[in-house]
Amino acid sequence: MRLQVVDHPLVAHKLTTLRDKRTDSATFRRLADELVTLLAYEATRDVRTEQADIETPVAPTTGVKLSHPRPLVVPILRAGLGMLDGMVRLLPTAEVGFLGMVRNEETLEASTYATRMPEDLSGRQVYVVDPMLATGGTLVAAIQELIKRGADDVTAVVLLAAPEGVEIMERELAGTPVTVVTAAVDERLNEHGYIVPGLGDAGDRMYGSAE
Ligand SMILES: O=P(O)(O)OC[C@H]1O[C@H](OP(=O)(O)OP(=O)(O)O)[C@H](O)[C@@H]1O
Ligand SMILES: O=c1cc[nH]c(=O)[nH]1
Ligand SMILES: [Mg+2]
Fold it and tell me: Is 48 among the catalytic positions?
């Protein structure tokens, strides 16, 4: 597994406002959208392209376009939905699959409540989006499912990661073609499995408490 922390002043600035507990839901959603666009720029550096012959108004020339098969973007519901638009804005040809997953707040175990993705992902580049990599349980299970379906290149785009989650990913996904792109790796997890300093519950901050 490869880890890439995007070190950029615009990313750091937006992340600081996102973390701030006074930031309201509408602003939080806008910042998450802006941040994923900046992270996606780095995350798609190896997106597959093919040669494209075109004519400008002046002369014929050769450029590139995104290859087939199309990349797949998979937001992990709920909070990952807030990163979907920003991702597909940069990858306009992408197909979108959905994974609904929730972490049990007592046991911290992730479970899947909805899956809508192609059965066969062989030869596909897949971009999973979820704002938080905490214990890593959610992302490891999501990526194992993608690899089981044949995905041969998976990039997870997260806003924040905990060192504990990164370590689990490295252990559980050793030897797999996985990259994690994040705006920051924070200090640690607290006793409730929340990232410190983090930003709280990303899903609740975007959409309100689901209770
Ligand atoms: O790394 P982990 O310890 O597994 O935790 C991370 C997961 O927790 C959050 O989702 P949550 O379960 O709160 O669901 P939600 O998006 O519906 O709020 C977050 O969006 C991740 O999916
Ligand atoms: O800090 C955390 C950890 C898991 N899920 C969140 O939304 N926030
Ligand atoms: Mg949540």
Answer: no
* Cα→Cα distances 38→56, 65, 83, 89, 131, Å: 29, 20, 11, 11, 14
Report the C-alpha gap between 55 and 142 in whole angstroms.
42
16, 61, 107, 115: which is the annotated catalytic residue?
107
- Domains of the chain, start order: 2-45+69-207 (3.40.50.2020)
| Of 33, 85, 152, 204, catalytic | 204
| Whether the Cβ atoms of residue 191 and residue 28 lie closer than 8 Å to each other | no
ipTM: 0.98
Of residues 81, 101, 77, the one with CA closest to residue 28: 81
- pLDDT tens for 82-126 read 999 999 999 999 999 999 999 999 999 999 999 999 999 999 999
Total length of the chain: 211
- Quick one: which atom of ligand 1 is closest to the CA of 193? 3
> Rounded to two decimals, what is the model's pTM?
0.96
